[in-house]
Specification:
The complex is a heterodimer of chains A (104) and B (151). By secondary structure, chain A is mainly beta. Chain A contains no helices and seven strands. The chains are: A mainly beta (104), B alpha+beta (151). Strand 5 of chain A pairs antiparallel with strand 7 of chain B, so a sheet runs across the interface.
């Protein structure tokens, strides 16, 4: 299980919090072939959910048509400096992890 | 040597590990719509995800490049002023699997997302916004000069 693939920038702007996330991930579609002509099996992030203080702020379902190193930006109401973002991601392979980041 | 203390400790750590294993998938196990994500044409995607066919709306701002030089990374931004938005989906008509991504928007989160998708060829890109009062969509053609799907 790979760990620490999410790069996060979360900033408070007035009464809103702006979140930008990039995941370091190949998002392998399952259509590509390696140099020997063998298919590279699909391996992509299917699910990314983010909670702040037990409140769900976004839930993203991704398909293989999401680009390599997926990027996601969104804005939610509330949130304060120092609040923890709990980010859970899961691959189509079943691998999953929970990562955290703080609002700045 | 197995004594009472050792046995207790073993039971406790084992059950803690088991508990973690049971917990992690359950947290992340959400409704990734397998049928919609594996559908091979746009109509099937729409019919699988929505009861009503989305109607065109001028209140959806779909930002995508007119020409994408590289289909492997096409930035898409969807914003809407429609009230009570439940979800936003991005559908690329001519991709082998048209449904690219679906975002669930809980109350308190603004109805706007940015993401980057792959496009195999020039195609209509459609943003579908599901609200409490109905489904709405907005489309834009994106010309792709180099495809991003497959080798």
């Amino acid at each position: 299980m790979s760990k620490g693939i999410l790069r996060v920038k979360a900033r408070v702007k007035g009464d809103m919090t702006n979140v930008k996330i990039m995941a370091k991930h190949d998002m392998e579609t399952g259509n590509r072939k390696d140099s020997k002509g063998n298919k590279i099996p699909a391996k992509y992030i299917q699910n990314l959910t983010i909670d702040v203080k037990g409140r769900r702020v976004i839930e993203a379902y991704l398909g293989p048509a999401v680009s390599k190193n997926p990027y996601l930006a969104f804005t939610f109401e509330g949130g304060e400096k120092g609040d923890e973002l709990q980010m859970t991601w899961m691959e189509n392979t079943g691998d999953s992890a929970i990562e955290t980041a703080f609002i700045k | 040597m197995i004594n009472r203390r050792g046995a207790l400790k073993a039971i406790l750590t084992n059950s803690a590990i088991l508990g973690m294993m049971a917990l992690i998938p359950r947290i992340s196990l959400a409704a990734w719509n397998t049928q919609a994500f594996s559908a091979e044409d746009q109509d099937t995607v729409i019919n699988t995800l929505y009861d009503d066919i989305p109607t065109d709306s001028a209140h959806i701002n779909l930002k995508a490049p007119d020409i994408a030089e590289n289909g492997a990374v096409v930035p898409i931004t969807v914003h809407t002023t429609l009230p009570d938005v439940k979800s936003i989906s991005v559908v690329v008509a001519k991709n082998p699997l048209p449904l690219a991504a679906q975002f669930m928007i809980p109350k308190g989160t603004q109805a706007g997302v940015s993401c980057r998708i792959r496009m195999g060829e020039t195609s209509q890109v459609t943003a579908v916004v599901e609200t409490a009062t109905g489904n709405f969509s907005s489309s834009k053609e994106v010309k792709v000069t180099i495809g991003g799907c497959g080798g």
